[in-house]
Specification:
Number of domains: 2
Bound molecules: nicotinamide-adenine-dinucleotide
Order of helices and strands: EHEHEHEHHHEHEHEEEEHEH
CATH architecture of the largest domain: 3-Layer(aba) Sandwich
Number of helices: 10
Strand content: 15-25%
CATH class of the largest domain: Alpha Beta
CATH topology of the largest domain: Rossmann fold
Length: 284
């Protein structure tokens, strides 16, 4: 039986710490502010944006929502970002992805001031992560690391396998494990011998986006299994990338879906926004 690492519990703790620091900042006359931009009416994006706004209210941040129609032009979006970059009361800017096809995501990410880039997607922040000199970490991998720390798991010298190489999750995840002296392997859709590589991992992070992809034969006895996936199974039920029922008895630690990595992402966004407010006020 594995120990369950509860993202609900850890995210509540992170948010409580942010709330406390937010009060301290407010006492100094600084009210952390996050601007969230959403373009179009993608239902999943709407849910994420609503959750982010709720989280801001919960920790005491000011939040501004900019809901733009699907036909918004690139110029209009970039002009809004420019205005927000210059707005002193806004410390963090987040543009909910994916954007409608006619908009250039890369140009939008590049337009956000690196100091306000609380998603840590800007190339300058990505580069800083690479060299280990960063202000912000991308929220999901940072959330996974927070769970690892909370569970008291030492990464140093461990064999770590990350399945998935996206810019948002897989790649930065691997980098964060490397910073903590893990011996890291990144697996992806072209990897050969995936099963054997995963089965040798002390720490296995699944960020594939395929329901129940990681089966029990891919997991070493006593491995730490962190499941980033958010999928629907054949019955429409929320599930991760890990086949939880079969893997859980073999693992030493495991994160559930829902209630694992998911709640950490927004908690880390709050942490980044707080950091942005401090940075922009010379307090960090
Ligand atoms: P993505 O589609 O950008 O990347 C998936 C990665 O999986 C790719 O790098 C690909 O090479 C790899 N892959 C695909 N098929 C594979 C296979 N057969 N074998 C090995 N590797 C394979 O996805 P993403 O944005 O990195 O997200 C991954 C998952 O994490 C999704 O389920 C997503 O919903 C979830 N997610 C969760 C959170 C959260 O807050 N918990 C945040 C972001 C993403």
């Amino acid at each position: 039986m594995a120990i369950l690492i509860s993202g609900k519990e850890v995210s509540a703790k992170v948010r409580a710490d942010v709330r406390k620091e937010c009060e301290e900042l407010k006492a100094k006359g600084i009210a952390p502010g996050l601007a969230v931009i959403i373009v179009g009416d993608d239902p999943a994006s709407r849910v994420y944006v609503n959750n982010k706004k709720k989280a801001c209210a919960d920790v005491g941040f000011v939040s501004e929502e900019y809901a733009l129609p699907a036909e918004t032009t690139q110029e209009e979006l970039l002009s809004l970002i420019d205005t927000l970059n210059k707005k002193d009361e806004i410390h963090g800017i987040l543009c909910q992805l994916p954007l409608p096809k006619h908009l250039d995501e890369k140009a939008v990410i590049n337009a956000i001031s690196p100091l306000k880039d609380v998603d840590a997607f800007h190339p300058s922040n990505v580069g800083r992560i690479m060299i280990g000199d960063y202000h912000f970490l991308p929220c999901t991998p940072a959330g996974v690391m927070e769970l690892i720390h909370y569970a008291g798991i030492d990464v140093s010298g461990k064999s770590c396998v990350v399945i998935g190489r996206s810019n948002i999750v897989g790649k930065p995840m691997a980098m964060l494990l490397l910073h903590e002296n893990g011996t890291v392997t990144i697996c992806h859709s072209r990897t050969k011998n995936l099963k054997e590589i995963c089965a040798a991992a002390d720490i296995l992070v699944a960020a594939v986006g395929r329901p129940k992809f990681v089966t029990v034969d891919m997991v070493k006895d006593g491995a730490v299994v962190l499941d980033v996936g958010i999928n629907r199974d054949e019955n429409g039920k929320l599930c991760g990338d890990v086949d939880f029922d079969s893997v859980e008895p073999k693992a030493s630690y495991i994160t559930p879906v829902p209630g694992g990595v998911g709640p950490m992402t927004i908690a880390m966004l709050m942490k980044n926004t707080l950091m942005a407010a401090k940075l922009q006020n010379g307090l960090s």
